[in-house]
Amino acid sequence: MSLEAIMETVLVIGATGNIGVAAVTAALRSKRNVLAVVRNQSSADKLVKHIGSSEGITFVEANVLSDSGVKSVVDQVQAGKLPAFQHVFSSVGGEYTTTPLPEISTEQLRRNFNISFEANFFAYRDTIRYLLEKKNPISTWTICTGSQGDVATHAVPAMTQGALFPFTKAAARENESTNIRFNEIYLSFRVEVDTDAVQHDVTKASDFGNVYEMILANPEVRSSRVRVDDVDDLKKLKYEKKF
Q: Which is an annotated GO molecular function term of this record (predicted)?
């Protein structure tokens, strides 16, 4: 059996965002391949620019905001047109805006729930059956949420992130005894791609990637919320069961 055949692959949904870039970086550093879902070739080029190389990355174009976008990717995997994956990382996020509640338009509200909640839900719904059917004992499914769902200083992301909390708890319960380690990363500070992070004096995506590397490497982390409250949490996992 070739090395390519046995090497693990991480499907990254939201791969070109700040957190997605961190996940891709982590997967590659942990000697795994990446199947990156991107909008178009321009998005693929953007990811390569942030990572520094396309080695180990397979790109697939899909609209993850559609209820059939991620399913189309899984269909291609099952048809042998794309590499099989054993892990999923989802980090589709919307606007980080300070728009006050009375000024949020219906369009803005619905757009952000589509981006931040529905897209992550679609990602879960349309990949979990595949992972369950494969019965690979090392499979993981990881999502990144944020503390805005609790602190609510920014109303739009607060509402959409807060809606993810019961979803992640339900998924953690449903996979407690399956072959899939489902976990939520709860992030409490700003992370940006490395070039932007230096300019804005915030945490680099490459540094935040350490958290995902540790989750992948630790089979004891299951059905848990991994808290990243400060930079010290980038070096040692802080986690507890979600129920």
A: oxidoreductase activity
The rounded radius of gyration (Å) of the Cα atoms in the chain is 17
pTM of the model: 0.95
d(CA 74, CA 55): 22
Check: CB of residue 119 under 8 Å from CB of residue 65. Answer: yes
Nearest-angstrom CA–CA distance, 195 and 176: 38
Question: Among residues 72, 24, 13, which one has the least CA distance to residue 48?
Answer: 24
Q: Is 76 exposed, middle or buried, given 0-12, 13-18 or 19+ CB atoms closer than 10 A?
A: middle
- Residue 128's closest CA among 113, 143, 137, 140? 140
Phi, psi of 9 (to 5 degrees): -130, 140
Residues 6+ apart with CB under 8 A from 128: 141, 171, 175, 180
Task: Give the domains, in start order, of the chain with CATH numbers.
Answer: 11-241 (3.40.50.720)
Confidence of residue 5 (pLDDT cuts 50, 70, 90): very low
Q: Are 87 and 32 in contact (CB under 8 A)?
A: yes
Close Cβ partners of 95 (under 8 Å, ≥ 6 residues apart): 108, 112, 115, 156, 157
Residues with Cβ within 8 Å of 6's Cβ and at least 6 positions away in sequence, in order, are none
* Token pair listed for 192: 């940006």
Which tens digit of pLDDT belongs to each residue from 12-25? 999 999 999 999 99
